[in-house]
Amino acid sequence: MLHVWNAAGEELVSVPVEEVSSVRSLKQDVQRCCGFPRFRQAFMHEGTILDDGAKLVTPGDAQVVLLSFAPAPQEDMLTFVIAVQNGHVHDVEEILRRPQDPNRPRTALVHASTRGHVEVVGLLLEAGADKDGTDIDRTTGLQHASGRGHAEVVRLLLQAGADKDLADCQGRTALMYTSQRGHAECARLLLKAKADKDLADKDGWTALICACSQGTEESVALLLRAGARKDLADHLERTALIHAASRGLADIDRSTGLVHASVQGYATVVRLLLEVT
After folding, report:
1. Which domain holds residue 145?
2. Is the peptide bond prior to 99 cis by the omega test (within 30 degrees of 0)?
3. Residue 115 and residue 144: Cα distance in Å, rounded?
4. Does residue 102 have a cis bond before it (omega within 30 degrees)?
5. pLDDT 10s digits, 151-165
6. Is 29 part of any domain?
7. Are 138 and 262 in a shared domain?
8. Domain harbouring 202, CATH code
9. Partner of 219 for a Cys bridge, out of 12, 151, 179, 197, CB 3.0 to 4.6 A?
10. How confident is the model at residue 251 (pLDDT cuts 50, 70, 90)?
11. pTM of this prediction?
């Protein structure tokens, strides 16, 4: 067995040595066990810090030290942001190993999520980035990724425990973003994660109203199958049906929501709404 101790002499984890492929894998074991990001761990042997690629082939003891974040002057933070925005995985990993605080700047995860850089998002989450961090408009990485159809990023963020129902400064959630833009796979992931399908933004628009307003048929179908309420109205008393039909230039009896006509592109959405009892 390989026994890992901290500086206070407490055993953190014991791992069969044959299951340890490298110092990096051992750091990941410690992170899973104790929550310490691997980027902040340093393994010592005879006073020397071991490289991540070093092999540990014999049973015994190993000491791990938790490192403080390195100072981050403005120039270094700019370099970090540029690497994140451009999806430069190797550069991001090297910067995080300084170790660099993944929340300085706090928008790093938002940038990576917006651009769909799956590996960079994974590294930032592994480093302990705030999964619910926002930009100036209080928009999270999950909302940006959902609105742009980056399904793998959405999956990673949800697996990391990102709040699926957080709203931006306009009250819009990730499900509203993705429903309006017709990214069905992202909507499917959010609904599977139990995102609240009936929340409304500051104008009273729900995810279903967002989807109907743009005629995104698959998103409408997904929301209806998930039980989204089609009778909810916005602040102008317009339901999802009224939005869908009016966008399709339908003739609507607003008191009953009865649709007399529709045009191609929105006819399917109207039919879906009318079929649901």
Report:
1. 131-275
2. yes
3. 9
4. no
5. 999 999 999 999 999
6. yes
7. yes
8. 1.25.40.20
9. 179
10. very low
11. 0.85
Task: Give how many domains the chain has, as a whole number.
Answer: 2
DSSP annotation string for 212-232: HHHT-HHHHHHHHHTT--SS-
Are 234 and 177 in contact by the 8 Å Cβ rule? The answer is no
Each residue's pLDDT tens digit, 193-246: 999 999 999 999 999 999 988 888 899 999 999 999 999 999 999 998 888 877
> Cα–Cα distance between 80 and 92 in angstroms, integer?
7
d(CA 188, CA 200): 19
Residues 6+ apart with CB under 8 A from 132: 140, 142, 162, 163, 166
Q: Pick the closest to residue 68 from 37, 46, 89 (CA basis).
A: 37
Tokens representing residue 9 in the block:
């002499």
pLDDT tens across 50-105, in order? 898 888 777 778 889 999 998 888 898 999 999 999 999 999 999 999 999 999 88
What CATH number is attached to the domain comprising 37?
3.10.20.90
Residues 167 and 243 in one domain: yes
